[in-house]
Design brief:
73 residues; mainly alpha; transmembrane helix; transmembrane; Secreted protein; membrane
Length: 73
Amino acid sequence: MKIDWEALGSVFGVSLFATVALVALFTLGLVGLSKHEAATEQGGTATLARSGAYLCFALVAAAVTYGIYLIVA
């Protein structure tokens, strides 16, 4: 049996990048929600922070859904 090391390295690299990107997006979403809560407590509004947080969460959900689609299909 011959192992295709180049393909294995490629899969590892893409998986690592996707994992780091998804964790970073989720973290940005949490930061956006915390900025919104902090501004609300001080009497201000931070709708841009909340909208950005929801966008980050939507992108994470879309990427996870696409990954599940790739596994199933």
